Each structure stands twice: as C-alpha cells, then as structure tokens.
Predict the structure.
Amino acid sequence: MESSQLDPNDTFYAIVTGANSGVGLATCCRLIDEFLQTRPQSHTLVLIPTTRSSRKSDDTVKQLRAHLAKTCQKSEKRVPGIGSVLEKRVRFQAEMLDLCSLISVQACGRRLRNTIPKLDVLICNAGIGGWTGLNWWRATYKILTDWVHSTTWPEGFKIASVGLVTGPQVPPTGSAPPTAKGKRGSGGTPEPPLGEVFCANVFGHYLLGHYCAPLLKAARPQAGRIIWTSSLEAYASEFKLEDFQGLTSNMAYESGKRLTDVLALTYDTPAARPYSSRYFETDDANTSDNRPRMYLSHPGIVNTAIISLPFPWIMNWLYMVALYIGRWLGSQWHTVEPYTSAVSAVWLALAAQSTLEQVEGREGKGKWGSATDRMGNERVMRTEVEGWGFGGIVGDCAGKKGRKRGAVDLKEGERDKFEGLGSVCWREMEKLREEWEGRLAAA
C-alpha cells in the first residue's frame, strides 16, 4: 500500500533530521523497533528520514530496510509468520534537507505539506559542532585527573572555529560587491551573516517546525510534537543575548544548545505565548486550537563522529573505551552507543500524551536525558537545566544524581528570570524568522 492510501487515523508520521548516521540513524532504528512492539498491528509507521543529498538518502533507506528486515527475522523466530506482517507496517519517505540553506528548508516544508496529511512527531536531531580539534595536552590531563566529569562536561579542551557563517541565502542578482557588514544579497543589498552552527542546530529546525505547523496541528487526537535534541553541554554562561547566534563565541555549539533549552522549556509560558502562538499560526481555521507540543531531550554522552579526530579508527576506539570507563566509574550519562542514546527521544515520540502530561504536571516541564547504569541498562532521566532546575520547581534538585559539579539549587525568583529570558528569545527568533522570510520572498 502506498503512503497516500494509508488511513491517517491508523498511521504515525515521524520525521528525523540528520538520519544518515550516528544518533539520527539509531533514532530511526529505535523508532521502528518500539513502534512495532507498542502499537496495534493495524497501525503503520511512515518514517521520514532527512539527509543532505540523494546519495545519503538512498544509503539511509537501505540501512533502515536492512534493520527492519533484521527486526522482522527476530520476530519470525518467536512467532512464525509475523515477520511479513511487521514488515508491511513500516514505510519510508526520505527527504533531502540542508538546514543551513533556508531555501532548502522552505522547499522541504512545501513537499511535506503536499505529500503527507499530518505529522505526529518532528525529531530535531541534526546538527554540527563547529569543532576543529582538541587541546590534547589539556584533554589528557583533565581526563586522567577527573575522568567522569571531564568526559561528561569536556570544558576547556575542545577547539572550535569562531565566526562560521552559512553561504549566501538569497541568490545575488545585483552587481554590488559583498561588504564587511554582510554577504551580498538579492539586488546587491547586504545580507546579514547567519551563523552556521546556529543555523544547523537551531534556526533551520525552528523554521522547519514552523513550516510543518499545519501538519502538526492536523494530527489527532492530540496535536503533533516537536522534540528538540539538546546536550549536557548547554552551559548558561555561553549564551549571550547580544551574540544571539554565537558568532563571536568559541563555543557556538554550547550557546545554541542553551538557546534550545530555553526555547523548548518556555514555549508555553504566558510570557512567551504571544510569540510562540505566531510561530504555530496556520491558515487552516479547523486546526487553530490544536496547539503542537514541544519537548526537550538529550542523548547523553555518545561515541559519534561529530568531532573530527586524527587517526579516526584508533582515536574513536580510544574514545569509546574512555566512555565505557566513565560509565563503569559511575556516570549515568555515558550511553556510549547511538542506539542506547536514542531512548529518550523515542520515548518522548511514542509515549501516550496522558503519560507525558501526568509526569510533567506532577514534576514540571523537564529536559529528558538518555541514561544507563554500569551494566548499560538504559532509562530516561530528567536532567538539570541552569536557572530551571529539573522542572522549574524550587526544591526539586534535592537528592538528584547526574548533576554538574558546582550546580546550584533553584532559588525563588529564578524561574521568573528564566521565563523572562525565554520570552526575549522567542521574540528574537520570531523577528529573525520574519526578516529572513521577507528577504527570501523579495528575491
């Protein structure tokens, strides 16, 4: 059966960005496995992995089909005849998407609105680090003297490029040369710089969520979910409102992840609602009250190729060993393997809405992390956010594990400050979105 012939009421549509490798590919595999295990046999999963090229799209679908076949073979051994039934319950619809190209994001949004009737979940996984290497002497010293903490929060020894920007977003049509203040845009007007790390990790996803808002609102019985992928390295100290895109920072990745935390945790607060409501606006009056939800996850500490290392085979193996040692020494955040690291995002994607509302209604809105014990038994755990605690509730930090050394318990008034920051961030993101949409429309 073609995707267009599926009954939307019995079909679950899921997008995973950056799905060609690492955590993204593992998230797709885990979605397949857990969907087949938890949803009725009459239900179908339409999995939409996004990559930046047709070659990567083909390769990703090939890997996912192989994983599906393997899953079905395992089930066939337990229940003869079930394998062919399960295989028919998963469909793939690969999409090309370059998050650093706003035109590509707009085009992807249009294709999705024309090819699927709704969207149940958008998992914003893709991203780049912007790192160029490591300070090896400092890294070696820090790890040997403070193993668990330094492999969890590797501050001070990752080296990143400063001021990385995307290519021109608006094709130039004039003859004016580029200026020091920006890249040449349509008609020769200066195009302001757009941070590459910021765009890949935050702004590109932000726009995609906006363009998919009609599909998210069309999901039933509840609206769809946007699941942001954050990090343990979302340091409050690295995000500056005056450097919103992290263009002058040597920790643009960490700055963007802090912004991600703030946006996802405050989107439904009274102060941010005027801006997030604009973000979710659609032309379809029938879905105006079906407001999408945002959730926040992180994969823990996982061995992926997000940072380039010399002698990659040897260094990646040594890095993986270092992470396993960190787990054995007591770290709950060292998931190490991509499949394990995907547990939090997939749980947020497939959990019943009543379950999520019950948990967050009782413990406050939180940041959900992938975690393990020493033996690798996985679980989903709340993660502390600076200025928010574990759920925006004073006193909710007492006795909690997995906290960064030096973390301070949430105090009275800090949540108000955090919500105020969220309102400003939402306002700035909406302003940036509207400005860039205006430039693209005028081109």
In short: The longest strand covers residues 44-51. The CA atoms of residues 146 and 283 lie 54 Å apart. The longest helix spans residues 414-442. The two ends are 40 Å apart (CA to CA).
